[in-house]
Amino acid sequence: MTGEGIRLDEIVARLGGSLLGDGAVRIWGVGTLAGAGEGQISFLSNPKYRSQLASTRAAAVIVPPAMQDGTERPRIVAANSYTYYARVAQLLYPARQPKTPVHPSVVLGQDVQLGEGVVIHAGCVIGDGASIGDGSVLHPNVTVYAGCRIGKRALIHAGAVIGADGFGFAKDGEAWLKIPQVGRVIIGDDVEIGANTTIDRGAIEDTVIGDGVKLDNQIQVGHNVVIGDHAAMAGCVGIAGSARIGRRCTVGGGAIILGHLELGDDVHVSSGTLVAKSLKQPGQYTGAFPVERHEGWLKNAAHLRHLSKLADRVHELEKKLSELEKKS
Amino acid sequence: MTGEGIRLDEIVARLGGSLLGDGAVRIWGVGTLAGAGEGQISFLSNPKYRSQLASTRAAAVIVPPAMQDGTERPRIVAANSYTYYARVAQLLYPARQPKTPVHPSVVLGQDVQLGEGVVIHAGCVIGDGASIGDGSVLHPNVTVYAGCRIGKRALIHAGAVIGADGFGFAKDGEAWLKIPQVGRVIIGDDVEIGANTTIDRGAIEDTVIGDGVKLDNQIQVGHNVVIGDHAAMAGCVGIAGSARIGRRCTVGGGAIILGHLELGDDVHVSSGTLVAKSLKQPGQYTGAFPVERHEGWLKNAAHLRHLSKLADRVHELEKKLSELEKKS
Amino acid sequence: MTGEGIRLDEIVARLGGSLLGDGAVRIWGVGTLAGAGEGQISFLSNPKYRSQLASTRAAAVIVPPAMQDGTERPRIVAANSYTYYARVAQLLYPARQPKTPVHPSVVLGQDVQLGEGVVIHAGCVIGDGASIGDGSVLHPNVTVYAGCRIGKRALIHAGAVIGADGFGFAKDGEAWLKIPQVGRVIIGDDVEIGANTTIDRGAIEDTVIGDGVKLDNQIQVGHNVVIGDHAAMAGCVGIAGSARIGRRCTVGGGAIILGHLELGDDVHVSSGTLVAKSLKQPGQYTGAFPVERHEGWLKNAAHLRHLSKLADRVHELEKKLSELEKKS
């Protein structure tokens, strides 16, 4: 938070929107509608929380036009109150610039290229010939293997591993023969990569992550995967080798996408779904066993193992009934 | 293991229970019933392994009263033989105290607070203003981001990441706008966190892990999750943002809990289950496709995609049959 | 890539196979059939890509006998073109030997044993009494806990954690009592371990990984698991404690295998499958909800919760129909 805070009218001057109430109010930080107090700005985006708007003690609130009368507190009216909130928060909490942008403990290989304003925190290891674009930030203990390229303004969280070998082996008798993984990982601009996420280098050609892609924590991206611009994936997702993910796709937490498949643009995969076939048309796709009390699940799961037979029995019933109907 | 071992009667003097057989036997370590030999103590807790009790060569055995006659070896009789075993093992294998409690390679930010007896192994990075309570141990290469608070007697395994940014973005056209993540991670006392587990900082308010919580490896805890005291989760679990997990809940390996849900106290989620709705009543909940031979699965899964139609056909049959019955 | 490349006839002299076309062609690297150009060798293994063989611009191609006439380019004919390719790639891309095989930032505990030619990259931490066999390579930021043994020619990728405590607790009132984990991890020869994969030490006896086992990224192996020789597992797999996995088993991405189960030799588990019972016979096993459009899934999943009742209704119909048939 900045030392003196920012006046509400100053925020509107910088970010637009219209101001209702006292523009001289100073804002130091953000808070939730329920938790915010003096010096804190909050926002309402989801109408579900409308009742909290009336009772909020926030110093100011960002609201969409439809809810601008829901409080008498000083407020900024903005068409998209959530993106407006994001911009205010970015203003109030600028990224901290460490005293030494590349921490002395960082290990840089030969011929590493670092852009302007790159920040690399302690414990990172950057392999030979890797490059990191302007304004990118690597949090502690990130490993970037040799030859990988990271674009501008990347934000890579602790423990992420970029460019480890893909999982490539040829069966040789009962043993596995290593296929050298000679491709790279190429990451576009404005990409965020979560903590302990791993992105493997390509087997021959490169693994490619498009511009604006956002990957949460503990995601595994296999070799030669191509992820289109502005795709976003939640935690614990696994993408097997050579899958192609379209632009603006979203993948819910814990979903698994098998190898060599193609997801078209604007495909959305629900959490916990195993995608075992290509999905070329836009839309939401799901496959997950509904949770229920264990006893109920036991019964239903037992029948699931005989579903094919149950369908045969229904077919048999239909035939017999049809014969009976003819007779009667 | 201690140099001279501990006499069996000394163990009973310290930990209680009743002794049958030679109390002068010296114990240096632990072993399984099948594998233990001279100087090793074993235990029987699960009646399934009762037959191993008769043939064990362990120097001594910890047994519940009901099985105290299952062997003639020196033995300690304790109501709960498993917790008794845990205490004996803690006695025999005290945590090693490294010569330098905070390894010289550790990177500490500004204003970090470390309690009494904190041990931090090599390669850890602790952000500005973080605090770690008395007696906590951080294994190698752990990252704690700025401002996070870890309670007393924590045990955090290698590669864990505490306080990385939550996955928060606002859709802005086709791109994603970063929501600064300004909350912290607050961890109670007596918490164990597994290797490469990640716990994200809160978006506005904090992510909170209660006292006595045990998290296995490779777990992902999203921003603003609240986990109640003494909950325990097995490996590869994912908890999405703002989920609230009750006290004493357990979550099996690989389960996924969606965001903004609530699990009441004493809810137990089976392995591999996707929890897509709140579960407020105590009990065991499950949702998982039963494994079977691939050919059988293929048939059943094909019918699953037509289950809704199958149900319609059964309904139709019921109607027709009822009409036929009326006629006949 | 070597400075001067290798002549095609030199490759055949070293690796066998038969040469068709100009043996004087020099090869510097590998490429895909579609992407390779001057100086690059490609291969055809999957007949699906046969059409690319006719149009490839690769300097040379490795083909199986059945496809040796699919191009007029210089080519090597080999019974198994994929393993042949693996060996050519190993020739062209020998592992880089760093100037200092054990990077100065590496932290070695007391009594660590390192074999001949071991390479340990920056940021690794090796605990007291651990041993690493000849020719093994540890990429950056790997942690090996005290006492663990790694065989010869291991390749361990960044961020992997070998030997953290298994997840062992005894219920003590509402709290959990720590069971000291006093076993080790014992890893055979020729094992590859992926980035951020974790293998826990045994509770009493050891966790054992056989020779030639290949583990992809982000896999969790619980305490006392035993994995047979030449098993291979894809990313994000979780193996719970004390499971025994047979020789040559394969496990698809994201599969979960519960504790204390046994998979026989040559069992193959499909991606995304939860294995909740022992599978002793060889073969492919699957359990996963098929993905479909969300609306269709909603309908089918709703009926799944009543599958047991649906089966009862079918049974009832069969009874009634049989009675009607008797009457008519």
Automatic annotation (TrEMBL), chains A, B, C:
<dbReference type="Pfam" id="PF04613">
    <property type="entry name" value="LpxD"/>
</dbReference>
<dbReference type="InterPro" id="IPR001451">
    <property type="entry name" value="Hexapep"/>
</dbReference>
<keyword id="KW-0444">Lipid biosynthesis</keyword>
<dbReference type="Pfam" id="PF14602">
    <property type="entry name" value="Hexapep_2"/>
</dbReference>
<dbReference type="InterPro" id="IPR018357">
    <property type="entry name" value="Hexapep_transf_CS"/>
</dbReference>
<dbReference type="Pfam" id="PF00132">
    <property type="entry name" value="Hexapep"/>
</dbReference>
<keyword id="KW-0808">Transferase</keyword>
<keyword id="KW-0441">Lipid A biosynthesis</keyword>
<dbReference type="InterPro" id="IPR020573">
    <property type="entry name" value="UDP_GlcNAc_AcTrfase_non-rep"/>
</dbReference>
<protein>
    <recommendedName>
        <fullName>UDP-3-O-acylglucosamine N-acyltransferase</fullName>
        <ecNumber>2.3.1.191</ecNumber>
    </recommendedName>
</protein>
<feature type="domain" description="UDP-3-O-[3-hydroxymyristoyl] glucosamine N-acyltransferase non-repeat region">
    <location>
        <begin position="25"/>
        <end position="91"/>
    </location>
</feature>
<keyword id="KW-0443">Lipid metabolism</keyword>
<comment type="similarity">
    <text>Belongs to the transferase hexapeptide repeat family. LpxD subfamily.</text>
</comment>
<comment type="subunit">
    <text>Homotrimer.</text>
</comment>
<comment type="function">
    <text>Catalyzes the N-acylation of UDP-3-O-acylglucosamine using 3-hydroxyacyl-ACP as the acyl donor. Is involved in the biosynthesis of lipid A, a phosphorylated glycolipid that anchors the lipopolysaccharide to the outer membrane of the cell.</text>
</comment>
<feature type="active site" description="Proton acceptor">
    <location>
        <position position="223"/>
    </location>
</feature>
<comment type="pathway">
    <text>Bacterial outer membrane biogenesis; LPS lipid A biosynthesis.</text>
</comment>
<keyword id="KW-0012">Acyltransferase</keyword>
<dbReference type="InterPro" id="IPR011004">
    <property type="entry name" value="Trimer_LpxA-like_sf"/>
</dbReference>
<dbReference type="InterPro" id="IPR007691">
    <property type="entry name" value="LpxD"/>
</dbReference>
<keyword id="KW-0677">Repeat</keyword>
